[in-house]
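QA checklist item 7 of 12: single-chain prediction sanity check.
[x] sequence parsed
[x] length recorded as 305
[x] structure emitted
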Amino acid sequence: MKVQWEGVMPAVTTKFNADDTLDLVTFEKNIVAQLEAGVNGIILGGTLGEASTLTPDEKETLVKKTVEITAGKVPVIINIAEQSTKEAIKVAQLAEEWGAQGLMLLPPMRYKATDHETVVYFKAIANSVALPIMIYNNPVDYKIEVTLAMFEELLADCPNIEAVKESTRDITNVTRLKNKFGDRIKILCGVDTLALESIVAGADGWVAGLVAAYPAETVAIYKLVKSGDIAEALRIYRWFMPLLELDISPQLVQNIKMAEVATGLGTEFVREPRLPLQGEERARVQSIIDNAMANRPALVDYQAL
């Protein structure tokens, strides 16, 4: 299946049982809800998916299970965030064998690579597989920015680099990328609290986090903006914003898993060293979720747009 790099692509959570094994029953329930809401792809093993704690066998299981659940309806994409170029290439090639249809690439982890090193790293992975690739550009969290000059070199040499998860927190970057590259690279907003603004500015899609708990509301906002009904999209977006802000936190995994519990699409089990929220912070997050659930908006028939 060809990845179109547009629409809403959930960066899904990884579900665990109380004994720290993969909870594939709850995982399937969530993926089915995403499909029913009308998402355009599934992204596995990102930050929200607790990628750094997953074993190779678990990654294989998640990819194969998601390919089975989606049954060709939407592409399955896996995040690559390894500690070395050699390992990144190995996982990328394995992901292709497991049935993934695309990759999301982070820059080198645990080492602040130079621009040249980052470009060489991305090229090495891209040239090792046939899968289409989305570069994850998040200098706020990962301290490495993929600049326009770096993208120019990557796009010239790697035809399978097709998209960027734009997470610089600078809305004007959407326009800069469009002005520089036109349709050569698809742009997906990677920051929940900037999604509507990014789509209005011309972003092709949204790699979303709170979609894990609220798939219908997320897809509705995207489709309403693309159809030109900004007022209706804003109505939902303004309700959604306190929840979306839970995504821009070091504890985003715990936050979003609490939201998944509220909507019946997940559990709170996280993998240590992460632990469920406690005390005042837990009460604060729960209050945001409770208020959102009490005022959850009715949706128009967005799937018909």
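[x] summary fact logged: Residues 192 and 244 are 6 Å apart (CA to CA).
[ ] second reviewer sign-off
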